[in-house]
Amino acid sequence: MNDLVIMKSNQALTTSLKVADTFNKKHQHVMESIRNLTVENSTVKKMFVLSTYVNSRGQEQPMYYMNRDGFTLLAMGFTGKDAMKFKLEYIAAFNKMDDLIRGKLPKTPEEQLALTMVVTNRLVKRMDTVEARVDHVENTSELNEVQRYKLLQARKKRVIEAVGGVDSNYYKSTKARKVFNAFGRDFKKEFTIPRYDSLQKQYFKQAMEFTKNWYPDYVLKREIQNSNAQTSLKI
Known about the structure:
elongated
């Protein structure tokens, strides 16, 4: 998160995506808050610029760039102890970036280098602290929509494989639901969760690996084998 505050068009800016990530909010909710702010006052519109980004699915989605005033105004609506700490970190980062942009540094190259190193070191340490806090929040939060989709697709693929494919007798007999239920019980028992979507992000890779290597128990496996071994009488 050393690029927490970025320089674009000779300005210190951040984006709605970074705000959403840092405050552990859904991006659509941050976008909605920004739109509400710009509707209420035309002056506020100058603090935000609508742009786009490409998501993990390769789709172009809207986002906002904002300057320090825009961020400060937006963040005022966020509450809580952690939110206050994040606000202060962002404001400090903006101030440091603005100082560098506006040339508020000693004139000699040696003085500039020395102060730049001090500012950089302090900013890196501050950002590392915030990054660790955000990583903790990120890892302990629930799966996002993309991860849920990938996990559900992996589960579907594994269950179909376990019953012998979509052309198998077992799958065609509509008993596959029994295997889906068995997988669900084993999955929730493995990760000690009440439902799929309560899985934490930090366990996503483990969940995908578990799904890939899952097999039904002996009794269910024999039932699948017996069903698939049966042949239809053709007249």
